[in-house]
From TrEMBL:
<dbReference type="InterPro" id="IPR010970">
    <property type="entry name" value="Cys_dSase_SufS"/>
</dbReference>
<keyword id="KW-0808">Transferase</keyword>
<dbReference type="Pfam" id="PF00266">
    <property type="entry name" value="Aminotran_5"/>
</dbReference>
<dbReference type="InterPro" id="IPR015424">
    <property type="entry name" value="PyrdxlP-dep_Trfase"/>
</dbReference>
<keyword id="KW-0663">Pyridoxal phosphate</keyword>
<dbReference type="GO" id="GO:0031071">
    <property type="term" value="F:cysteine desulfurase activity"/>
</dbReference>
<comment type="function">
    <text>Catalyzes the removal of elemental sulfur and selenium atoms from L-cysteine, L-cystine, L-selenocysteine, and L-selenocystine to produce L-alanine.</text>
</comment>
<comment type="similarity">
    <text>Belongs to the class-V pyridoxal-phosphate-dependent aminotransferase family. Csd subfamily.</text>
</comment>
<dbReference type="GO" id="GO:0006534">
    <property type="term" value="P:cysteine metabolic process"/>
</dbReference>
<dbReference type="InterPro" id="IPR015422">
    <property type="entry name" value="PyrdxlP-dep_Trfase_small"/>
</dbReference>
<feature type="domain" description="Aminotransferase class V">
    <location>
        <begin position="24"/>
        <end position="391"/>
    </location>
</feature>
<dbReference type="InterPro" id="IPR000192">
    <property type="entry name" value="Aminotrans_V_dom"/>
</dbReference>
<dbReference type="InterPro" id="IPR015421">
    <property type="entry name" value="PyrdxlP-dep_Trfase_major"/>
</dbReference>
<dbReference type="InterPro" id="IPR020578">
    <property type="entry name" value="Aminotrans_V_PyrdxlP_BS"/>
</dbReference>
<protein>
    <recommendedName>
        <fullName>Cysteine desulfurase</fullName>
        <ecNumber>2.8.1.7</ecNumber>
    </recommendedName>
</protein>
<dbReference type="GO" id="GO:0030170">
    <property type="term" value="F:pyridoxal phosphate binding"/>
</dbReference>
Length: 404
């Protein structure tokens, strides 16, 4: 069991006020808050070992390089990758997806197909549209139903020998749906297609095992899992990473450069052009240490309780509708109140110190499916409490009265 007061004390921002009220932070789907342990690790890096990595023989450069590579090893362990060189540091989920989509440009031709799901974040739609424009491949969409679940019978029908890559999120940021990715991975492989999993919303809640999943690519950001902004991970199977051309050219990713020809560095450096976010890379490992010290079993138990409680309390409000009622869900509640624009509710509850997200959540196709402009999204983390949910429910009721 979590000692919730002790956990909350790890996060200095949770004790501040907003608009004169205690902060209630329910925008964890956009970014998580950071524990002091992580904040301290950032300044410790700059105070004690700041240097560029993989370049100098001097002591600091070696210390920084060692710390960076140790962190890569922590991430490798965390997701159970077979090799450390399958773990590429990126600037985040968006970067990771673009690196893979760009790599596939050299492998696709007219008539090939790319499958994306109806539940995707724009980051996992637009790079594939750009890829299709460039190559003449066709983008096909795996549809969802009114619960916000992908329809597997339709997925099965869409798959064919033309399918070259499938891309789907592990967990939807807009609705919280946990997708049946193991089934989807195995099905894609039956047709010889590669599959990328967007794990941005999964890694704050669970520990993915990329070997058990057998996915070809798994991408995520550090900032949604208690880590700093500006850093993320692209996991790729060794064979795929060797097959794909590098995404960016520059320093660090080369073996030899002449004006006639350049040869590329081995993995992982082939995909790590230029000076990376060294502090971010190192501290991402610190964030993983922190989350493991809390324990993912504890995290899931706390978040599931919050989800059930929030769902029950919110449904007491007349005219309130929840979008996303999948059987497998994480701690996200997306809702609207009849006759009121989500933005207006968001603005009023902000005045009361409550941070929720309003809008389309970078997933306009989902909003179009439900024929709504957006929703109010409360996304909970393990450091949130039922008392905070009560505060939100009262605030939403108040907003409803004011706007009716
Ligand atoms: C947040 C998010 C992204 C984009 O992550 P960035 O950190 O902005 O690159 C992509 N997919 C999902 C499901 C997300 O939640």
């Amino acid at each position: 069991m979590l000692d919730i007061n002790k956990v909350r004390a790890d996060f200095p921002i949770l004790s501040r006020t907003v608009n004169g009220k205690p902060l209630v932070y329910f925008d964890n789907g956009a970014t998580s808050q950071k524990p002091q342990f992580v904040i301290d690790a950032i300044s410790k890096y700059y105070q004690e070992i700041n240097a560029n990595i993989h370049r100098g023989v001097h002591t600091l450069s070696q210390l920084a390089t060692d710390a960076y590579e140790i962190s890569r090893g922590k991430l490798q362990n965390h997701i159970n990758a077979k090799y450390a060189h399958e773990v590429i540091f990126t600037s985040g989920t968006t970067h990771g997806i673009n690196a893979v989509a760009n790599g596939f440009a050299s492998l696709l031709k007219t008539g090939d197909e790319v499958l994306v799901s109806a539940l995707e974040h724009h980051s996992n739609i637009v790079p594939w549209q750009m890829l299709c424009e460039k190559t003449g491949a066709t983008l096909k969409v795996i549809p969802m139903d009114e619960n916000g679940e992908l329809i597997m019978a339709e997925y099965d029908k869409l798959l064919s020998d033309k399918t070259k890559i499938v891309t789907v999120n592990h967990i939807s940021n807009a609705l919280g749906t946990v997708n049946p990715i193991k089934y989807m991975i195995d099905k894609a492989h039956e047709f010889g297609a590669a599959i990328l999993i967007d794990g941005a919303q999964a890694v704050p809640h669970l520990k993915p095992d990329v070997q058990a999943l057998d996915c070809d690519f798994y991408v995520f950001s550090g900032h949604k899992m208690c880590g700093p902004t500006g850093v993320g991970i692209l996991y790729g199977k060794e064979d795929w990473l060797n097959k794909l051309p590098p995404y960016q050219g520059g320093g660090e990713m080369i073996k030899e450069v002449t004006f006639e020809k350049t040869t590329y560095a081995d993995l992982p450096h082939k995909f790590e052009a230029g000076t990376p976010d060294v502090a971010g890379g190192i501290v991402l490992g610190t964030a993983v240490d922190y989350m493991n010290s809390i324990g993912f079993d504890n995290i899931q138990q706390q978040e599931l309780e919050l989800l059930e409680y929030a769902t029950k309390r919110l449904l007491e409000i007349e005219g309130l509708k929840i979008y996303g009622t999948a059987k497998e869900k994480t701690s996200v509640v997306s809702f609207n109140i009849e006759g009121i624009h989500p933005y207006d509710i968001g603005t009023i509850v902000d005045k009361l110190g409550i941070a929720v997200r309003t809008g389309h959540h970078c997933a306009q196709p989902i909003m179009n499916y439900f024929n709504i402009p957006g929703t109010i999204r409360a996304s909970f983390s393990f450091y949130n409490t039922k008392e905070e949910i009560d505060v939100m429910v009262e605030a939403v009721k108040k907003a409803q009265l004011m706007l009716a």
